[in-house]
Amino acid sequence: MEMTTLRKITLLAIGITFSANSFGQTKPPKAPSVPATDDYFGIKIEDKYRNLEDLKNEQTLNWMKGQAEYTNSILGSIPGRQHIIDELTSIGNRTTESIGALLILEDGTYFYLKTRPSDQVAKLYKRNGLKGKETLIFDPENYQKNGKDIFNISTFSPNKSGKLLSVNISKNGGEMSEMILINMADNKILPEKIDKLRFGGANWLKDGNSFLYIQSPTEDIHDMNAQMDIVTKIHVMGTDVSKDKILFSKAMYPELNILTEEIPFVSYDIDSDLLFFMPYTVDQNQKVFMAPGSDLNKKKINWKLLTDRKDEVKNFAISEKDIYMYTTLNAPKFKVIKTSIANPNLATATLVIPEDNDLNLNSPIITKDGIFYTRTKNGVESKLYFTDFEGKKHKEIATPKKAASIFVSARSNKFSDVWIVTTGWTTKGERYRYDLKKNTFTREQLSTIIDYPEFENFEVEELMVRSYDGVEVPLSIIYKKGIKKDKSNPVLFYGYGAYGSSITPSFNPQLLLWVERGGILAVAHVRGGGELGEKWHLAGQKTTKPNTWKDVIACTEYMINQGYTNPTKTAIYSRSAGGIFVGRAITERPDLYAAAIPGVGSMNTVRGENTPNGPANIAEFGTMKVESEAKALIEMDSYLHLKDGVKYPATLTTAGFNDPRIIVWSPAKFAARLLEANASNKPTLLKVDYEAGHFGGVSKVKSYEEIADVLSFAFWQVGHPDFQPKN
Predict the structure, then answer these.
(1) Which backbone phi and psi does 606 adopt, to 5 degrees?
(2) I want to staple 524 with a disulfide (CB 3.0 to 4.6 A). Which of 68, 352, 422, 552 is the partner?
């Protein structure tokens, strides 16, 4: 009773009036506008909200905070939202322990993160073997308690003996972390701490007493140099961190011709005693240099080129004597070749796993006994295989259950241990230890085995939908058995379409709650993703990027034409680079959707290069310095395609103030312009989260609230009766 009264007072204070099908409100003020005009190859672009890019401007910050408070009040008032949070909490509490990030040392010691129902963030544990006694090593909830900040473990790394352990700790969902070091003999935190860590933790060397680490020049994630000017240092235990030697920086190796946008990553492989340097961007074609570990003792490392981008090597793995390369060179559905570690030469590399014209090959896993790999059809049907190191004998391995997705992991190339996880859209993950000699699977679940009776009566259809240009696009739809094609079903379209990443079937109770409440979940495997191989990726990149949103538009039209739904019942959702998928679909066809939720989305691609993470993304989206790519970036820019007087769908745009990947002003500018341009009376909301980064909030409660925001907002706008505010 008290909660109801309090909520009414809050609503009255900001002047909101709800009805079932409309949204009357005293809207918050429009964003301050200081326009700028740019000329790109003769194309004049007016940027009405360029001023919002100044994140030190008090007027900008006040507007964002006002939007966040307003949006939180609206979302918190949607009936049904709390029920989703309660159900997610109930589902989560069934899992008495959820275990992840497993790392097994050579002596059989397990290190892992574990979450129990009472935990908001994962804690770090160890045990001797699978069934050994468990010991708590580190609890981030007890780290620097101040009642406000939430800390989590972003990564951890024991040395080879397991006697020393590094733990990286992040704050409020951010990706910049601080490293602490723990002496495992007494579980005590050692004096030295290392800050400004954006990429990874300790990369231990053979002596077990020193490690490499990658450090940013600043903790300011909004600084353009935060990741491009990172350096690799060496720390020796017990020494002054401030005096750590710089092993690698761009300035030290001008002969390597490292580009401005390339992020310099150096790593060390302890088993092969090899150093690797990769000038990183989002380009999946890796450029890799290598050197012997003994060069660590030299003044300068003698780097030798292993692969160039033209070799189209996407990944590589090492056995005792060979390097196996996963490549699309003359093989758009992937193949694996090998060359010797002692004398690597791609020109004489031998074929180990050939390309299959129909099935996508996934990255292989190397064990002591040979190579495990999977192949996938349309990204949604997997098969498991094994071959010897030479690729002479290949065999398919039948898994205990037919699975839409199969994931393989191994202890290392020194051991036979291999685990298989099978899962699907409506099938929870099952983990098995596989014995190659006996050809047997033994269930070895680390987390609690639980049932989900609320998701049992679901059906899955794998469809191929003809897009605007005749190309067939895979579409996965999940719904309750017995659903009728009466054009009245709520449909949530989900997709991504970037970097060659595939949306593979996996069990996601959060999104399945949409289906449990009578909706249809429609996963569009659009171009730009990797479901159909490298050609599929390249068909949704740079100048071909329009295929990404045109494919989901075609899938939406299909669902409408087949009688599943109608435009008043459709919602579209994605995150990050998927902001293009959402934003351009609703700006090109606003009539097709009732609601749109671009989460921490790339909404202002023309200005992407002016963000810390933008230059590294040139390989995927393009640069404003090349005319054809500039025109492509203009075309994929959702912010610039908003037009005055158009009736746009209800929109919930989210942003993380601590997000180093999609800077907060990119979604904020989109929301500001939409508030100004939208002629419909539907809500245009901007949620800026000051306690979250790119991947959302770090605590369980926060993650439940975020998905509840998405589902309740979408259900409200498609007219679901349980989510309609009362008069």
Answers:
(1) -60, -30
(2) 552
Q: In 3-state terms, what secondary structure has residue 604?
A: coil
Distance CA 653, CA 141 (A): 30
pLDDT at 568: 98
Low-confidence ranges of the chain (pLDDT < 70): 1-27, 145-147, 697, 727
Nearest 5°: the CA angle 618, 621, 623 is 50
Q: How far apart are CA 560 and CA 571, in angstroms?
A: 12
What is the chain's Cα-based Rg? 26
Residues 590, 650: contact at Cβ < 8 Å? no
Residues 446, 421: contact at Cβ < 8 Å? no
CB hemisphere CA count around 500 (13 angstroms): 19
What's the pLDDT at 57? 96
276 token code pair: 């690797």
Name the residue among 220, 213, 181 with its Cα closest to residue 197. 213
Asked if 254 and 688 count as a contact pair (C-beta separation under 8 A), the reply is: no
Do the Cβ atoms of 688 and 626 come closer than 8 Å? no
CA end-to-end distance (rounded Å), the chain: 18
Burial-class residue 556 by CB neighbours within 10 Å (0-12, 13-18, 19+).
buried
CA distances 136 to 110, 111, 140, 193, Å, are 12, 10, 11, 21
Q: Phi first, then psi: what are they for 434, rounded to 5°?
A: -110, 130
**Upper half-sphere CA count for residue 72 (Cβ side, 13 Å):** 13
* Backbone CA torsion sign across 83, 89, 95, 99: positive
pLDDT of residue 346: 94
Contacts 24+ apart (CB under 8 A), 113-117: 113/153, 113/156, 115/700, 117/92, 117/93
Predicted confidence at residue 198, as pLDDT, reads 87
Residues 6+ apart with CB under 8 A from 110: 102, 103, 104, 126, 127, 128, 129, 130, 132
* Rounded (10°) angle between helices 700-717 and 509-516: 30
Q: How far apart are CA 237 and CA 247, in angstroms?
A: 16
Question: CA angle, corner 303, sides to 297 and 309, nearest 5?
Answer: 150
Side-chain-side CA neighbours of 171 within 13 Å: the count stands at 18
Selection from 481, 491, 431, 493 nearest residue 456 by Cα: 481
Per-residue confidence (pLDDT) for residue 13, from 0 to 100? 29
pLDDT on residue 158: 96
DSSP letter string over 398-414?
--SS--SEEEEEES-TT
Q: Which pLDDT value is given to residue 8?
A: 26
The CA-CA-CA angle for residues 394, 395, 401, to 5°, reads: 145
Separation between Cα atoms, residue 624 and residue 326, nearest integer Å: 31
- Dihedral sign for Cα 342, 348, 351, 356, please: positive
Rounded Cα gap, residues 128 and 35, in angstroms: 62
Alpha carbon 29 to its chain's center? 33
Who contacts 471 (Cβ-Cβ below 8 Å, separation ≥6)?
A: 527, 539, 547, 551
- Residue 13, classed as helix, strand or coil, is helix
Q: How far apart are CA 456 and CA 224, in angstroms?
A: 49
* C-beta atoms surrounding 23 within 10 Å: 20
Across the strands, what pairs with 432? 420, 443
Handedness of CA 321, 325, 326, 330 (dihedral sign): negative
Q: How many CB atoms lie within 10 A of CB 348?
A: 10
